[in-house]
Design a protein that fits this description.
By secondary structure, this protein is α/β, with parallel strands linked by helices. The protein has a single domain, classed as Aconitase, domain 4, CATH 3.20.19. It is about 35% helix and about 20% strand. Strands 4-3-2-1-5-6-7 form a seven-stranded mixed β-sheet. The longest helix is centred in the middle third of the chain and has 10 residues.
Length: about 160
């Protein structure tokens, strides 16, 4: 599994209400959630600028706060191919995998990648390549079962596919 795109850089302790403000939690419409992704931090600029395949890079404790699945779902719906951070809130980490959004922890990548850098990620190898700077960073590769969930598009889709 691979991803590549432009980096959008955020700081530390980005909470789920900043990712998708609570006033939008009454919908599960992917387009609606995508249009408000990261609105709690930078207004609707992110939704206007992000392109399919782009990558969010952030500091430590990304996704802290309430345990809403809307947060990773809005990121995935916006077209983001993965999130790289120094660390993730545990519930956000699991919610992301459950909905099929790949996320990687790498302190060196999160600190070394700058806004706008072109990034390529190989999830199987656990390799994050900053094409702009010619640097390679390491992350733990996904275990086979997590890769299977992500490839299927999420845990529910994986289970449905195995029974249909």
């Amino acid at each position: 599994m691979k991803a590549n795109g432009k980096a959008f850089k955020f700081g530390k302790n980005i909470n789920t209400d900043e990712i998708i403000p609570a006033k939008y939690l009454n919908t599960t419409d992917a387009k609606e959630l995508a249009s408000h992704c990261m609105e709690g931090i930078i207004g609707n600029d992110f939704a206007k600028k992000v392109k399919g395949g782009d990558i969010i890079v952030a500091g430590r404790n990304f996704g802290c706060g309430s345990s809403r699945e809307h947060a990773p779902y809005s990121i995935k719906s916006a077209g983001v191919s993965c999130v790289i951070a120094e660390s993730f809130a545990r519930i956000f980490y699991r919610n992301s995998i459950n909905i099929g959004l790949p996320i990687l922890e790498s302190k060196t990548a999160a600190r070394g990648i700058k806004e706008g850098d072109k990034i390529e990620v190989d999830f199987t190898k656990g390799e994050i390549r900053n094409v702009t700077k010619g640097k390679v960073y390491r992350s733990q590769s996904f275990p086979a079962f997590m890769e299977k969930i992500i490839k299927a598009g999420g845990l529910l889709k994986m289970i449905q596919d195995s029974y249909l």
